[in-house]
Amino acid sequence: MTVTRLFWDDALTTYDFGPGHPMDPVRLRLTMDLVRAFGLDARPGVRVLAAPAAGESTLGLVHEPGYIAAVEAVAATGIPNPARGLGTEDNPAFAAIHAASALIAGQSVAGAEAVWAEGGHAVNFAGGLHHAMPGQASGFCVYNDAALAIARLLELGAERVVYVDVDVHHGDGVEKVFWNDPRVLTISLHEHPRTLFPQTGWPEETGGAAGYAVNVALPAGTGDAGWLRAFHAIVPQLVAEFRPQVIVSQHGADTHIEDPLAHLAISLDAQRAVMASIRELAAEHADDRWLALGGGGYAVVDVVPRSWTHLVALSAGQPIAPETETPESWRAEVRALTRATAPQRMTDGFAATWKDFDAGYDPADRVDQAILATRKAVFPHHGLLL
């Protein structure tokens, strides 16, 4: 039986930019409550663990010492440091900004260590803060836990790591950290930079180690069929060719049609399908070593808890059927915490189907244009046919 380590600490909800900020920590609490309501935390093979916060030496695997000191100073004084992206509209200053960010990073790094040492899976749905740069906060992200987890894997001796990012926003911070490192293949599927922050992630951005940064820039309005078509036209081929020892994936739920900050039209069912595909890729090509992280997601009641509960269930090899009703106890918790009405089922009611890109290219279709642009930019570097 594959072991799944679910990293959770109630203190993760102290990563809180304050009232009115889109990244409401209630999304984390409601996710863990839904995981517990389904009994996933007590299933065979599931271990719920809490790791300590990442220390300065660990944070220093990715972040500049001056930046870490700047975060600590903002935490201590409350004085903004906009030159470092701290105390801005996106990243307001708060007293726990260092401690909470380091705690999130600690869970992802511990997950990476466990997967490398013992195999199996690890999940930190509080993680996936993929925009943070070595010397600057960006896009609601202070410390880049995804990059730190990968850096720790490399430090432990990993020679090939694949990072798959399906957040609606380009995984720019992780890409930047490993831009020149051919040991890490970063793959990001995201809304086109013409229409969404951070305005990077063009298909021509292929890395200093050419071909090891992969960007699939999808047009605004892309739905399930196009999103899944793009994923299956790019990701499995590259993973199979690269032969990673570990897959690290970021599962931002903000691709969803109801997300208020972006413009894709993806269902919960398609998100679940991609999670299942990544699990299969890890089993087939990475000796079943898989670290799965959360990310963005700002429909904090209707989407995020269901999406990441599916992630935990799939990681544990105990998937929840999409038509399953959400537990009444959880719906009551949603009402108590948010005064909102919780979703009734674990599905949006979509089939999550797609047509294989290799069965026929439509030159007038903008999704197919995006797929072909990425293939042309990257596939030759890996000896793959367009």
TrEMBL record:
Keywords: Acetoin catabolism. InterPro entries: AcuC, HDACs, His_deacetylse_dom, His_deacetylse_dom_sf, Ureohydrolase_dom_sf. Residues 21-313 form the Histone deacetylase domain. This is Acetoin utilization protein AcuC. Belongs to the histone deacetylase family. One of its GO terms (biological process) is epigenetic regulation of gene expression. It comes from the Bacteria. GO terms for molecular function: histone deacetylase activity. Pathway: Ketone degradation; acetoin degradation. The keyword DNA-binding does not apply.
